[in-house]
Design a protein that fits this description.
The complex is a heterodimer of chains A (about 475) and B (about 210). Chain A is an alpha/beta fold. Chain A is built from 16 helices and 19 strands. In chain A, α2 links the parallel β3 and β4. The relative contact order of chain A is 0.14. Chain B has eight helices and seven strands. Chain B has a seven-stranded mixed β-sheet. The longest helix of chain B has 14 residues, at about 190-205. Chain B starts with 6 loop residues before the first strand and ends in a 9-residue tail after the last helix. The chains are: A alpha/beta (about 475), B alpha/beta (about 210). The interface between A and B is large, with 82 and 63 residues. The structure holds iron/sulfur cluster.
Chain lengths: ~475, ~210
């Protein structure tokens, strides 16, 4: 039987099928953050259960941490309720001896940036986290899925996820991307094509020359937003780029283990003859920079497009909320804030690209605030070593400490009511970035160039 | 403890919209809680109130958005929610399910559900039912007409005034979970020996996964 990459990963982890038809899938790595774990630990306590395998778990606070005033650590969190959540994570990790990169640790950051960076995300693994963007880790040929808090408790207690098999979808992006078109534009274009429920019930494997040419950072951006297409998991096959990325990371195996691992990982590709339940094909060279105009990631269009007519209630409601008029040019949308960050686009490569555009330029006077939030302490350090922080600061961006920040605005970084924001994050839902805030999802390149002009610009013209 | 349902009779609220995401169901500022209860007053917070909500606020002084359907008197005492495509999309936050339940909803009926939300429902005893667009339209109309809707989980049928509206499918085990409020973890732990055996095999084949991180 020919197998897809998903099938192979599944077969490597299937423990048993229960009488009811569901499966127990063994979980190699469990990532934990402060927001979705407290109730799970509480559940364990109430039932007198213990974590099954401590070494599988790794924690870091990210959603709630402030991006300023970080030298004070936990004391720098002014919001008492948020502080309690971060302290609770600390306590739970201490009680169970779980490794945590805490708020003082230079390795702290967004959990989906930290895992791969540390070599905690390794090909062939199953990875879960109480966070829907766990799909990110699939870029390294892992089977990675977001789970709810009850499932967090289940995984802690049994080292297994109770689940059913997903169907296989392959999205093939052929050709070559145009200059200025990034992995973020690719993923937004895919969502625009299949819709936010198009991937429901599927694991999406991304393939084709565009993906083969992409860096791991780029593949992570694409896999990250699989959940915005409704798919619980995104996947990319193992290749030499994966191997080079993993080599020499802190938790990457070494010596004999490294050799054995590599020989196993080679097989983490879909068999040529494997059949997918659904195939989507996209010509990569036809993808333009993308901008969302609505309140769902599928409400997206090319940078040179127009705001659509309000043909149905969903569009009408979205345009009302966004205060946009049908027929107007995307490029004419005026911006109030710019946010570069989130688990979609806060890796070193994203910062380098944005900095390239910003070098020697100034953020437009009409922009009230532009912030850049590195995905982890180590990304931040790397960027500082390369002098990127200076480029950002000189151009008028605020350079912040790592965390989720304005991606979901649980900390003080928020949009004001009615403000339009060019954001490199993943969700443009109503109020996501602040009460009444209006989010437009874009790539780091588009965000940077638009910050300079005060409205959206086509980076393809900007780069010449 | 998990809720159980076998037969439910009640009135419904028609939330006639696609892609209701979990950020709308319960906005992020309320996720700072370390508890599973108390989310009901902030369910659909940004739509229900005219001002911005924050944790610990005195709800009674807030300005109510009278236009939002949950606030219309006509729909008081409803405990079934009816919506359209891709309900519960976005963030994995189980708080969405906790808030719907805390508010008093027992059943959510929609054209389709996002995967993680759907799982989260069963893990808490909120019954999600997926129906065809036509059937949803009938239910939306019934909800508007304030008709009583009856959900017979045992036989997987929905009635109103003795008329059969729809049959629905549900995974047999998940059905059992809602009927009996099963302890999922306890059930999985009956397979402990399988898990241990598997783990041993995996450790032998791919030992690096088990390297101690300290
Ligand atoms: S950066 Fe945003 S999407 Fe990513 S984990 Fe944090 S809140 Fe979630």
């Amino acid at each position: 039987m020919f197998q897809t990459l998903y099938d192979k990963l599944w077969n490597l982890h299937e423990v048993t099928q229960r009488e009811d038809g569901t499966y127990l899938l063994y979980i190699d790595r469990h990532l934990i953050h402060e927001v979705t774990s407290p109730q799970a630990f509480e559940g364990l306590k109430l039932t007198g259960r213990k974590p099954w395998r401590i070494s599988a778990n790794i924690a870091t606070p990210d959603h709630n941490v402030p991006t300023t005033n970080r030298t004070k650590g936990i004391d720098g969190i002014n919001d008492e309720v948020a502080k309690l959540q971060v302290v609770t994570l600390d306590d739970n990790c201490k009680e169970h001896d779980i490794l945590q990169f805490d708020i003082h640790d230079k390795r702290q950051g967004i959990v989906h940036v930290v895992g791969p960076e540390q070599g905690l995300t390794l090909p062939g693994m199953t990875i879960v986290c109480g966070d829907s963007h766990t799909s990110t880790h699939g870029a390294l040929a892992t089977l990675s899925m977001g789970i709810g808090t009850s499932e967090v408790e289940h995984v802690l207690a049994t080292q297994c996820l109770k689940t059913s098999k997903l169907k296989n979808m392959r999205v093939t992006i052929s050709g070559k991307l145009q200059e200025g078109v990034t992995p973020k534009d690719v993923t937004l274009a895919v969502i625009g094509k299949i819709g936010t429920a198009g991937g429901t019930g599927y694991a999406i494997e991304y393939a084709g020359s565009v993906i083969e040419d992409m860096t791991i950072e780029g593949r992570m951006t694409v896999c990250n937003m699989s959940i915005e297409a409704g798919a619980r998991a995104g996947l990319v096959a193992y290749d030499h780029i994966t191997e080079a990325y993993i080599d020499n990371r802190p938790f990457t195996p070494s010596g004999e283990q490294w050799k054995t691992a590599k020989s196993q990982w080679k097989d983490l590709v879909s068999d040529k003859e494997a059949e997918f339940d659904k195939e989507i094909k996209i010509d990569g060279s036809s993808i333009a920079p993308q901008v969302t105009w609505g309140t769902s990631p599928e409400m997206v269009c090319d940078i040179d497009g127009l705001i659509p007519q309000a043909d149905n209630d969903s569009i009408k409601h979205a345009l009302d909320y966004m205060n946009l008029e049908p027929g107007k040019r995307i490029k004419d949308i005026k911006l109030d804030q710019v946010f570069i960050g989130s688990c979609t686009n806060s890796r070193i490569e994203d910062l380098r690209e944005a900095a390239k555009v910003l070098e020697g330029k100034k953020v437009s006077n009409s922009i009230k605030r532009a912030i850049v939030v590195p995905g982890s302490g180590l990304v931040s350090q790397q960027a500082i070593d390369e002098g990127l922080d200076k480029i950002f600061i000189d151009s008028g961006f605020e350079w912040r400490a790592p965390g989720c920040s304005m991606c979901l605005a649980m900390n003080p970084d928020q949009l004001g009511e009615g403000e339009h924001c060019a954001s490199t994050s993943n969700r443009n839902f109503e109020g996501r970035q602040g009460y009444g805030g209006r989010t437009h999802l874009v790539s780091p390149l588009t965000a940077a160039a638009s910050a300079i002009e005060g409205h959206f610009v086509d980076v393809r013209e900007y780069l010449v | 403890m998990k809720n159980t349902i076998n037969y439910h009779k009640g009135q419904a609220i028609p939330l006639d919209r696609d892609n209701i995401d979990t950020d709308q169901i319960i906005p992020k500022q309320f996720l700072k809680s370390i508890k599973k209860s108390g989310f009901g007053p902030n369910l659909f917070d940004a739509w229900r109130y005219e001002d911005e909500g924050f944790p610990g606020q005195d709800i009674s002084v807030r300005k109510i958005n009278k236009k939002f359907i949950l606030n219309q008197e006509k729909y008081d005492n409803s405990d079934i929610l009816i919506s359209k495509k891709n309900f519960g999309c976005g963030s994995s936050r189980e708080h969405a399910v906790w808030s719907l339940m805390d508010y008093g909803f027992k059943v959510v009926i929609a054209e389709s559900f996002a995967d993680i939300f759907y799982n989260n429902c069963f893990n808490n005893g909120l019954l999600p039912i997926a129906l065809s667009p036509n059937e949803i339209q009938i239910l939306l109309n019934l909800a508007e007409a304030r008709k009583v809707i009856e959900i017979d989980l045992l036989n997987q049928v929905i009635f109103s005034e003795d008329n059969e509206i729809a049959n629905f499918s549900i995974d047999p085990f998940r059905k059992k979970c809602i009927l009996e409020g099963l302890d999922e973890i306890g059930l999985s732990l009956t397979h402990s020996s399988d898990i241990k055996e598997f783990e041993k095999k995996r450790q032998k084949e791919s030992p690096w996964i088990f390297n101690d991180k300290k």
